[in-house]
Design brief:
Strands 2, 3, 5, 10, 11, 12, 14, 15 and 17 form a nine-stranded mixed beta sheet that branches. The chain has an eight-stranded antiparallel beta sheet with strand order 1-4-13-6-7-8-9-16. The protein is built from four helices and 17 strands. 13% of the residues lie in helices and 33% in strands. The longest helix has 17 residues, at 5-21. The chain is mostly beta strands. It is globular. The chain has helices at residues 5-21, 32-35, 260-273, 296-302; strands at residues 36-40, 45-47, 53-58, 64-68, 71-82, 91-98, 109-115, 124-130, 141-143, 154-160, 164-169, 172-178, 193-200, 220-235, 240-244, 274-277, 329-330.
């Protein structure tokens, strides 16, 4: 695999500067058809007339989803998302990176998953990371939010470099995952595509499968807009990273990671809103995975939350078609 070292090196520093400075808000917004293709779900994917927003829906027939045209090796990826309202138990909305169709036995993955709930209960967010097929070591964390994600659009972002992964909600870092030598190949290191899907996760998503999708409330509709694809695109034929988005932001003072002010916000978020971390799950892991840094106060705080059940269902369907320019249904009345 031949990489443009200088390009990706500059991109990493550019990304850190972009996010730390808040300049990510000024990154180019990519029209849907320029960045993404229809993945599955037929007319359950609807592109708005402005070309910048899309609806995904789940009904009795199928869910739906889309995938980026390009593969990426590191970058900053973002979308504004509005989730379905009312009764959403069993519904899973996902915004994530994966290369599972190219590396079926040793795939990488970086996940935002939004888990529906019964009426009167809030949506929950789950983040997860796999590297090199390490699916036997789930690195899940779960959180509540300080807002109702079905009321309006909110921005969800992933920063992926060769040394760290950071998840953001409305520009606030909620999770920082650093690569360690002890992880070996468990850190995502191969090119990945961006995906977004909505699907039926009745078997596990809400109270371990106690509450299932009720199609009386279908269709369940989620909306995506403000797409940012800011990274090193990878050519799967030439096996090279052929194009990197390097902006003027690379000239900004470069931080070493999450800034002090961001870290305060992240720690506040995690103290108030995190409900589960794999590092403290003594049922799954008698010995915490090597990258875990145990905080006794955090461990004690998480004990009050209910046990968590995880699912093994895949969120994307079918093989991707590289550089496909197909799209979903064009709407004249949306």
């Amino acid at each position: 695999m031949v990489m443009s070292y200088e390009g990706c090196f500059l991109l990493v520093f550019s990304l850190l500067a972009v996010v730390a400075s808040g300049f990510y808000r000024n990154l180019p917004i990519v029209p849907f058809d320029e960045g993404y293709s229809h993945l599955f779900g037929h007319d359950n994917l609807v592109v708005h007339r402005d070309g910048k927003s899309v609806h995904l829906s789940l009904d009795e027939r199928t869910g739906s989803g889309f995938v980026s045209h390009d593969l990426y090796l590191h970058g900053f990826f973002s979308a504004s998302i509005k989730l379905p309202a009312d009764y959403t138990a069993g519904v899973v909305v996902a915004f994530y990176m994966s290369n599972g169709d190219m590396f079926e036995k040793n795939h990488d993955e970086i996940d935002f998953e939004f888990l529906g709930n019964i009426r009167g209960k809030d949506w929950r967010i789950q983040t997860n990371i796999y590297g090199n097929g390490s699916t036997s070591i789930g690195r899940e964390e779960r959180y509540n939010l300080w807002f109702d994600p079905s009321d309006d659009f909110h921005q969800y972002s992933i920063l992926w470099t060769d040394s760290q992964i950071i998840f953001y909600v409305d520009g606030i870092p909620i999770r920082e995952f650093k690569r360690t030598a002890s992880m070996g190949g468990d850190f995502p290191a191969k090119p990945m595509s961006l995906y977004a899907t909505i699907w039926d996760g009745s078997n596990w998503a809400t109270n371990g499968g106690k509450y299932r999708v009720n199609y009386k409330y279908a269709p369940y509709v989620t909306e995506f807009s403000d797409f940012v694809l800011h990274g090193c695109s990878f050519d799967p034929i030439e096996q090279t990273s052929s194009k990197c988005d390097i902006t003027e932001s690379s000239k900004v003072s470069i931080p070493t990671g999450v800034s002090p002010s961001q870290r305060i916000k992240m720690e506040n978020f995690r103290r108030k809103h995190m409900t589960y971390s794999y590092c403290y799950d003594q049922i799954r892991y008698k010995v915490p995975p090597s990258e875990c840094v145990i905080n006794p106060l955090e461990a004690e705080r998480l004990k009050v939350h209910d046990p968590v059940t995880f699912g093994g269902g895949r969120r994307h369907h079918g093989k991707r078609h590289h550089r496909s320019r197909s799209s979903g249904t064009k709407a004249n009345d949306v």
